[in-house]
Amino acid sequence: MNEMTRIAPRAETTIKDWETDQEVRWCPGCGDYAILKAMQRTMPELGADPANTVFVSGIGCSSRFPYYMETYGFHTIHGRAPAIATGLKLANPELDVWIITGDGDALSIGGNHTMHLLRRNLDCQILLFNNEIYGLTKGQYSPTSREGTRSPSTPYGSVDHPANPCAFALGSGARFVARSIDVHKNLPDQLKAAYAHKGAAFVEIFQNCIVYNKDVFAEFAEKKNAALSQLWLTHGQPMLFGADKDGGGAKGIAVDHATLTLRVVDVADGDWQAAGVIVHDVTNRAVAHMLVEMPFGPFPMALGVIYDDPRPTLEVAVHAQIQAATRGKVPDLQKLVSKGQTWVVEPDGFAH
Questions:
Q1: What is the value of pTM for the model shown?
Q2: Which of 112, 243, 246, 321 has the fewest CB atoms found within 10 Å of its own CB?
Q3: 3-state helix, strand, coil in the chain (%, to 5)
């Protein structure tokens, strides 16, 4: 908190304070609209300050996002948003930095940058819009496209095994991993949890590309399929899904101790303890790995905050190091540039 904030407390904002005058230009029906609106509605609830907020994006449909948020923003180059965000946060650790990226931008050309930002644990929020396709460049398959995906670049079907964004994040050392759906009412909850986490917060958002990959997530994203296909995780609560309005037909996630794997169990009469259903613990990294790797179909899709276990951040460590290195020293630029071997250029043009 700076001196001006102490003198004049931050004014509350409304959704209008976060909307720009720019025409929002995505394809009609694109899931990006829902994510944008969720963000604009959530920022006032966070008590965030537009003047202290920066959105950084790379290249892709999602990367138009900074134009539509009334904050500072950088529309950078393909895959390099993490590098720009790192520079911003190190220069001014007080900034609220959000990275907006897509499955291609973050996991293909930007995979290296995303990995290092996560392992370094920069204090920022990374929102990965996953539509399993390259939308901006007209429908080529992406790192997350499923095997068999037909596209202009894979007319006979992709033979690549797709990347799992949340597994990638955990494998890179992320300390916060969450999943959500573009049009789901719970999306603001994941945005709030990511903002509250001190460190790199990674949120995968399933986003419907209406043109090139329409309804690819319908099996679990559509409301009619939600009960049996969505596992919404809440810290301290049993991993239950599938219950009807009367509480019947519930299922849950249990651990098979013989194989150390997860399995789906039926829950009779609401007695989830007897069925062996486990309670979600956001600090359990081993279970988080298993949750993000659950194959959809035999298992529901794990959604919500999957892992949240903070540790010291990069910018705190960097600035602590700078303070330690400069403590008790007087800045002297001339002394610095004169250190070591030097030359004096005389009027005759020769160095002596």
A1: 0.91
A2: 246
A3: 35, 20, 45
